[in-house]
Design a protein that fits this description.
Pfam families: Glyco_hydro_36C, Glyco_hydro_36N, Melibiase. It comes from termite gut metagenome. The chain is an alpha+beta fold. The chain has 3 domains: 270 residues, Distorted Sandwich (Beta-galactosidase, Chain A, domain 5), CATH 2.70.98; 235 residues, Alpha-Beta Barrel (TIM Barrel), CATH 3.20.20; 80 residues, Golgi alpha-mannosidase II (Immunoglobulin-like, Sandwich). It is built from 14 helices and 43 strands. Strand 16 and strand 17 form a beta hairpin. Helix 5 runs parallel beside helix 6 and helix 12 packs parallel to helix 13. It is globular.
């Protein structure tokens, strides 16, 4: 009898709690972006968007939970066991807990509002609460639907040396994007934008994931949905296991820049690691385009001296410093080549530091060459499929979720670090597209092997930052083929592209500052570019001044045969390095405004202008570029300034007077460049 009374009491309490949930609308807000949740008649429902768009909208949208065991997971299939709000300082969240009525499947989800950034992050994890496996085909990290019609959508295609080309289309049909090359931005960037033209509203979503993924835009209703793509197309969730999905961040604004800048503020204030003390956006020299893999201690000496003369702050030795055989097939045997460095790396390290620069070194620790000693000894540490180690171009892929592989990589790095008396900048490359077919150590296709490796690699990067807090970590993947919010949270900067040619570099600077905070990306001046460091002596110095100013739209570096440069070009280098050091504090964490459309990568025409505004709106920098078929003057209508504040304006170190923010934003600023392929930098400072 007591048991029956207890059961009735628990039933009544549970029913009352859920009834309370059903009567309550839970809401979080950041700036004017709102997410609301409620327990509707068909299960958990939401609405989200800018306040002006949704405040009078009565439509509630059903959650999309993907499908499991070949059945669509509907909100009505789940019992809502909890919804609650929580606050941690200026970060507010709504969390919910759902249990499937038939399957042993639990979902714990959360929406988080980050202060007044205007960014909402959606996270979720699925847990198998039963005693048998559950097969899941697709689970979205996040899905957002918006009211109204007549939308456009924008996305970015990506490929080696052609990263992040923006495309915009009318949303006439549902469209699917699939990226399953094994690295996040090898096909598309994990970034999507919806634009409702009637209301002038833009929504941008970014998936924080460095592996395979899918995304879609839907028409009725207008929807953005982004998901992790599981190995082999499905996930087997074993009893007691939990699968944490990548997070999805979304924001909105009245322009694409307005929405993007909110995501920039989230990156600046909550996501990106702080740069190490004494290494704020340092000017790098990198050996790659000067010497390629033929680096030796002797060949590097004149480059060290010249880079120091230019004012470079970090000198990085790129690939080729290790082993005596084929550097590509023997990668993984991390010992300095005794023929190239007879006294070890320390000779060059001492030379670099005595010249007043910090020392950097290239690694690719996720890969083993098929002829490396380590692969011969431990093939079981590698990702595999059908019992064979995954390979691409003679290279095998380590699994950083394997504790021995994780420790080996840390130990190898630490040994070289100590041999060099410290490393100030590490460039971590990743040159394989390994696909989407994997199995676990027992040969079972569970769907999460790449997922576990990526989570392990994130943890490994965090270990580097913990053990070597003064070291800058540069992420690289055949250029920018693994750049996303996931890896950006664990590395300080990412190499933009292997193509350093001036023309495509302009277009990539434009799109990367739409997706990323400027300090999160890194590029160089080289020469002709695209693996050609040739300097044409017949070109005017003004053209090379144009080239120098292109990589100033992020972290700036030089990689070229600088010991062959003319005195005039060397003087141009010194002048531009000094300029960059002056403006980098503004560019690093700025709001970015794209004052022109994205230039064509192969044959840009007209003008390109980018504006950077400091968070306090007291300073701004505008980078301006004139290409072919263009008039000699350009009027830049500036944005983001304080309308009432007075600003001192200079163009290429020449004072242009004092203007109010209102004048600069309404009447604009005229820039004159008499020749094509020239550039100017405008500096705007609080008077």
């Amino acid at each position: 009898m007591k048991d029956n009374k207890l059961f009735i009491l628990l039933f009544v309490l549970t029913f009352s709690a859920l009834e309370g949930i059903g009567q309550t609308i839970f809401q979080i807000k950041t700036a004017d972006f709102i997410v609301c949740l409620r327990n509707g008649k068909d299960g958990l429902q939401y609405k989200a968007g800018l306040e002006d768009q949704i405040k009078n909208d009565t439509t509630w949208y059903a959650f999309h939970f993907g499908n499991a065991e070949d059945k669509v997971l509907l909100p009505s299939d789940f019992t809502i066991t909890d919804i609650r709000e929580s606050n941690q300082g200026d970060v507010r969240s709504i969390g919910y807990l759902l249990q499937h009525r038939l399957l042993p499947l639990q979902i714990a989800g959360k929406f988080t509002a980050y202060s007044q950034t205007g960014v909402i992050e959606q996270t979720a994890e699925f847990r198998n609460t039963g005693v048998y496996p559950v097969r899941i085909n697709e689970i979205p990290s996040g899905s957002f639907s918006f009211p109204g019609d007549r939308y456009e959508y924008s996305y970015m295609t990506s490929a080696w040396s052609k990263e992040r080309k923006l495309k915009t289309k009318t949303l006439d049909n549902d469209t699917l994007f699939v990226s399953k090359e094994g690295r996040s931005s090898a096909v598309y960037s994990p970034w999507l934008c919806l634009h409702q033209s009637d209301a002038g509203i833009y929504y941008i979503a970014q998936l924080a994931w460095s592996g395979n993924w899918t995304a879609s835009v839907g028409k009725q209703p207008a929807t953005i949905r982004m998901s992790e793509y599981f190995d082999n197309g499905f996930l087997v969730l074993l009893p007691g296991e939990t699968h944490q999905l990548p997070s999805l961040c979304i924001s909105g604004g009245t322009s694409m820049d307005a929405a993007a800048n909110r995501l920039h503020r989230y990156q600046r204030d909550f996501l990106l690691p702080k740069q190490p003390a004494g290494q704020f956006m340092p000017v790098q020299f990198n050996s790659w385009f000067a010497l390629f893999e033929g680096v030796t201690a002797e060949k590097l000496k004149p480059y060290v001296a010249k880079a120091a003369d230019f004012g470079c702050e970090v000198f990085v030795i790129d690939a080729g410093w290790y082993c005596t055989k084929d550097w590509f097939k023997h990668i993984g045997d991390w010992y300095a080549n005794p023929e190239s460095f007879p006294n070890g790396l320390i000779e060059t390290v001492d030379d670099v530091r005595s010249s007043g620069m910090k020392f950097g070194l290239w690694f690719e620790l996720e890969m083993w060459g098929e002829d490396s000693e380590m692969f011969m000894q431990h093939p079981e540490w590698c990702l595999q499929y059908d019992g064979v180690a995954i390979h691409h171009d003679y290279r095998k892929h380590l699994d950083f979720s394997h504790p021995d592989a994780f420790k080996w990589a840390l130990d190898q790095f630490d040994r070289i670090y100590r041999e060099c008396n410290g490393i100030d900048w590490v460039k971590l490359d990743y040159n394989n597209s390994i696909g989407s077919r994997f199995e676990n150590e027992q040969g079972i296709k569970t769907g999460d092997r790449l997922h576990r490796h990526i989570r392990g690699y994130y943890a490994w990067l965090d270990s580097l930052r913990t053990h070597y807090p003064g070291m800058m970590i540069e992420n690289c993947s055949s250029g920018g083929l693994r750049l996303d919010l996931g890896i950006a949270a664990h590395a300080h900067t990412t190499w933009l592209s292997d193509d350093t040619s001036p023309n495509p570099s302009l277009g990539m600077a434009w799109s990367n500052t739409l997706e990323c905070l400027p300090r999160a990306v890194n590029h160089w001046i080289v020469g002709k570019g695209n693996h050609d460091a040739t300097i044409d002596p017949t070109l005017a110095t003004g053209y090379y001044d144009f080239m120098f100013k292109i990589p100033m739209n992020g972290q700036f570096g030089i990689s070229s045969r600088i010991i062959e440069w003319s005195p005039e070009l060397c003087q141009c280098a010194v002048k531009n390095v000094q300029l960059y050091k002056r403006i980098r504090t503004v560019i690093a964490d700025a709001d970015c405004y794209h004052l022109t459309s994205q230039p064509d990568y192969d044959d840009p025409a007209g003008w390109m202008a980018m504006q950077y505004v400091s968070p306090d709106r007291r300073q701004s920098v505008v980078t301006v570029y004139r290409t072919r078929s263009s008039e000699p003057t350009f009027k830049a209508i500036l944005q983001g300034l304080d309308l009432k504040r007075k600003y001192k304006v200079s163009v290429d170190d020449v004072s242009k007077g004092v203007y109010t923010g209102s004048t600069l934003m309404k009447s604009g600023l005229t820039i004159s460049l008499p020749d094509e392929y020239r550039a100017s930098v405008v500096e705007i400072n609080d008077k």
